Amino acid sequence: PAASQDVPERAAGFPDDLTLLVNDYLAQLRFAREPGVSGLQEAMHYSLLAPGKRVRPVLALATARAIGHDPREVLPLAAALELIHTFTLVHDDLPALDDDDLRRGQPTAHVRFGEDVAILAADALFAEAFRLVLSEQRGEPAHVLAALAALTDATGVNGLAGGQYIDVRGLAGARSVGLRCLHRLKTGALMRASVESVLLVHGFKGVALDEFRKFADELGLLFQIVDDILDVTADASELGKDTGTDARHGKVTYVSRFGLPWAQSLAEQTHAAARAALARAVPDGAAELEAITDFFLDRTS
Ligand code: GRG
């Protein structure tokens, strides 16, 4: 690894007040207007309301606070990020992809409801995410559309879908593609959108966005490296996550490629780089974003 940077002091824990705001908002969402589709709504709620960490929506709310806004103003946008994330988890677990039985400490959606309903529930969550932003997110219409464009870009061929393609085709091991590209698309894009969309909805443009983008990109990378480390160091049942680790699926990870000590060192360096970019983005400090960055390094699940 390259020369290490100074590691800043750890901030206080993950912002639980923001997690509560997200969970309360998600819990009151109702999607079905017809009794005939209440079973589909049940499947949507099953995956959405299972105990995830909510890192993407909390990152969005913390970004709002960092720029001096009430986080509650961007709850529809934050919730949309979690709906999209949940959609990808349901698809990722399907037999055609990772074929996992356990997610967020409970049977995966296709195990509980069957593949057909799981696919439909995920598709409906994806669509409802965009409906939520379009119908509930307040802001200047041009700013809301810019935020929506960022969200959409993060899910397409240059984001989640593209990242998953690289994954299923085993292209991360190819010199011309690489592990970094896989994770920039599969994990990083939605992390970046969690920060960027909030800035866009509040009318940020150009250079004002750049340091935040650098921060978000380092954060996405940090999240993934630590995910790869936890894949081999943590007990899956303890994690409450899918039992099918990337290592078991034979995928290339930071640990399988470079070894555990190197991955741990890279995580420390990426954490320092994220904190440095954040300090440039918000010179007066941003307690919640600092705490999230520290949590990304120190998390055990
Ligand atoms: C977007 C059109 C479109 C298709 C989806 C299936 C798919 C393509 C992409 C999958 C992307 C994927 C599963 C990425 C994994 C990212 C990741 C690190 C998941 C775990 O996130 P956590 O730890 O989980 O935040 P919790 O359960 O805490 O929310």
TrEMBL record:
**Alphabetical list of InterPro entries matching this protein:** Isoprenoid_synthase_dom_sf, Polyprenyl_synt, Polyprenyl_synt_CS
The record ties this protein, via Pfam families, to: polyprenyl_synt (PF00348)
**One biological process term in Gene Ontology:** terpenoid biosynthetic process
PROSITE patterns referenced in this protein's UniProt entry, alphabetically: POLYPRENYL_SYNTHASE_1, POLYPRENYL_SYNTHASE_2
User: Which domain of life does the UniProt lineage start with?
Assistant: Bacteria
Keywords for this protein:
Isoprene biosynthesis, Magnesium, Metal-binding, Transferase
Name the coenzymes or cofactors required: Mg(2+)
**Record-level Gene Ontology MF annotations:** metal ion binding; prenyltransferase activity
Q: Which PANTHER family match?
A: FARNESYL DIPHOSPHATE SYNTHASE (PTHR43281:SF1)
What family, per the record? Belongs to the FPP/GGPP synthase family.
Name-wise, this protein is Polyprenyl synthetase family protein
Q: Per the UniProt entry, what species is this protein from, by scientific name?
A: Solirubrobacter ginsenosidimutans
